Amino acid sequence: MTPYNISPVNPNEHDSLLDIWELSVRATHHFLEEENILFFKQTIHEHKYFELVELVCVRNQNNRILGFMGTDADSLEMLFVHPDAIGKGVGKTLMNYALNTLKVRKVDVNEQNQQAYLFYLHHGFRVANRSETDGTGKPFPILHLVLE
């Protein structure tokens, strides 16, 4: 498999990121109802979450974004991979960049998102704390992970 390269995200690509976010969430966050997905999508858009983090992405040879992540200081705030690219090294490439270049040491993950939780455990993270609700107060427990 050809290694992927990390590239910056242009602000005019934020709509594409939101599309990838939604496709990824629908493929991996099976615990969310439709109304929850639409609520979070609207929240991301209205609060301009992509402008609050340092964004990078992985692109294919046609310059199409396959996955992206957003960081803030030493925290990974978001990492989403297009469903067609899941299991093909995109997430691993992003995570390695986060750990080795950006020095990320913390990440939060939905407790019900077992696939993501196991992904972070594989990369050396361990549970430091747990919240009963997410940042919006919804009943989706969050695991606060730190790098060991």
UniProtKB/TrEMBL annotation:
Q: Which CDD domains match?
A: NAT_SF (cd04301)
EC number in record: 2.3.1.-
Keywords from the UniProt entry: Acyltransferase, Transferase
The N-acetyltransferase domain sits at 4-148
Which InterPro entries does this entry report, sorted A to Z?
A: Acyl_CoA_acyltransferase, GNAT_dom
GO MF terms, alphabetically ordered: acyltransferase activity
Q: Which SUPFAM superfamilies match?
A: Acyl-CoA N-acyltransferases (Nat) (SSF55729)
Q: What is this protein called?
A: GNAT family N-acetyltransferase
